[in-house]
Amino acid sequence: MPIVPLIIGVVELLKSLGLPNKFSALAAVVMGLLIGIFFLHPNNIPEGIITGLSLGLAASGLYSATKNTVEGVKNMRISGDK
Q1: 25 CB contacts (<8 Å, ≥6 apart)?
Q2: Which secondary structure element, helix H or strand E, spans residue 41, and what is its range?
Q3: How many domains in the chain?
Q4: DSSP 3-state assignment of 18?
Q5: What count of other Cβ atoms lies within 10 Å of the Cβ of residue 41?
Q6: Which end of the chain lies in a sparser environment, N or C, as judged by fewer CB atoms within 10 Å?
Q7: Residue-wise pLDDT tens digits, 48-58
Q8: All residues at 6 or more sequence positions from 64 whose CB lies less than 8 Å from its CB, including other chains
Q9: Domain range for residue 39?
Q10: Distance (Å, rounded) from C-alpha 46 to C-alpha 48?
Q11: Which of residues 4 and 62 earns the better pLDDT score?
C-alpha cells in the first residue's frame, strides 16, 4: 500500500492551502495515526497507534530527506562544485 506517498501528497496539499511549514511533520504524524487506527487496525488500537506513528514519521522523514537532498544538489550547481 502506498500510504507514505499518500500522506506526503496530502501534507503538500495542506501546505498549498496555507498550512505553515512548521506544522507539516505534525500533520503527517496525525494523518498516519488516523490511518493506522481507523483503517489499518480498527480492532487493535495499540497496533494502530504504532503503525500510524511509523507511517507518519516515515512520511515526514522521507519528505525532509528528499528536500535536503534537492537543496544540496541545487547548492552544488550554484557554487559550481561537482
Answers
A1: 60, 64
A2: none
A3: 1
A4: coil
A5: 17
A6: C
A7: 999 999 999 99
A8: 25
A9: 25-69
A10: 5
A11: 4
